[in-house]
Amino acid sequence: MPTSSRFALPAVPAVLLSIVSVQGGAAIAKGLFPVLGAAGTASARIGLSALILLAVVRPRLGRLSGAQWRAVVPYGLALGAMNFLFYCALARVPLGLAVTLEFVGPLGLALAGARRWVDVVWAVLAAAGIALIAPWSGSGVDLLGMGFALAAGGCWTIYIVLGQRTAAVLPGAQAVAVGMLFAVVPVLPFGVASGSLLAFTPHLLLLGALLAVFSSVLPFTLEMQALRTLPTRTFSILMSLEPVAAAISGWLLLGERLTLGQWLAVVFIVAASAGATLTTASPPAAVGGE
């Protein structure tokens, strides 16, 4: 999305504002769950985001080549599946834990093929974090919610790989705008089947538009702006702060309190993610999560 250099933020504040925006959007989403459910909320977010991005970016769909379509379609499908699964998780577990578990996907990608002993440390830290969250006693954190969050992390991994391929053949703003069109495909059938989309009122439509702006349009714009000047490694380290931001946002905006063990899990996985980013030769940029 074009951003006037006159109003452009410096790269680091842009990334931090993007993180705050995403977590604020997640809080709005959780407020919509009682009325629209996870499927309806995800459909509203992605559908309205697609409309807004298409109106602003105005990609020339008729001029895309076959190679560009082959790249952007699976990229968009992965984006839609990732967001839908994340909302399914968010309906069952606190925001901070959902984001922490989702981060396991990009972390695993960063550690893939690692051969140095220090990489084992990051893997052990991440495993310890998951172990601290896991409901070993059969109570506490929702097991299905954890599964949805980890599945969203898996889709995030696929999204990163496909996003890198798409960025090589299509400019970032166009890739996001066109990809968002196809992100609707894996989500909308569930939204329609749930019947929740029939409950839309002008008030809910306004909340859905705010959700689209805070969760997709604004953060994608800020991240693309930051990546023009910010090294990928620095960007990835900053994005590692998302689980902490999510936990704080869940506490302040949703009244969700984590136990000491769950806070330790967040810290362990953030440390593993930042450490893996620092010591991996070419870390993937975790753009557009949640």
UniProtKB/TrEMBL annotation:
Annotated compartments: Membrane
Database matches in InterPro entries: AA-Vitamin_Transporters, EamA_dom, EmrE-like
Membrane topology: Multi-pass membrane protein
TM helices/strands, residue ranges: 36-57, 69-87, 93-113, 120-137, 143-162, 169-192, 204-222, 234-254, 260-281
Signal sequence, renumbered to the chain: none
EamA domain span: 144-274
Keywords: Membrane, Transmembrane, Transmembrane helix
Family note: Belongs to the EamA transporter family.
PANTHER family from the UniProt entry: EAMA DOMAIN-CONTAINING PROTEIN, INNER MEMBRANE TRANSPORTER
Protein name as it appears in the record: DMT family transporter
